[in-house]
Amino acid sequence: MRRFIAHLLAFAVLGFGTAVYSQTDIQKDKKDARQDQRDINKDRARLDELQEKCKGGNEDACEQAKKLRADIRKDRKDLNKDRKDINQDKDVANDRKDINQDKRDLKKDRARLDELQEKCKGGNEDACEQAKNLRKDINKDKKDLKHDRHDVHNDKHGR
Description:
Layout: H1 2-55, H2 59-121, H3 125-156
């Protein structure tokens, strides 16, 4: 019993740590995205000024406007990358939630299967049929769990 409680506590701590880590990663990506958007807005305002000066014949302003356009393109790429990271981190978090739910379902189903098998040994035909269906459900849950773990792995490694 003590070992079970220790395992349960360790699992809870690891799950909580993972959730906190993924949440801070999402927050950092959102902060980066906001900063990139602010940079783009400032650069656009400055670009408008430089383009007006360039129309007036200022060659230096034309050169600065050209460099600023390149900077805006770079900031847009960064912003898109940050948005992609945010969505990917959310996918990983959702997949982890699915994994945890599948684990709980699997545990409940296994406990229920043990009960049904005992009743089946006692001659209860209905319990035997329910046990058969529950075995199918357990296999489906195992398959779902495997797919969710695969999704998390692919999301982490950018595949």
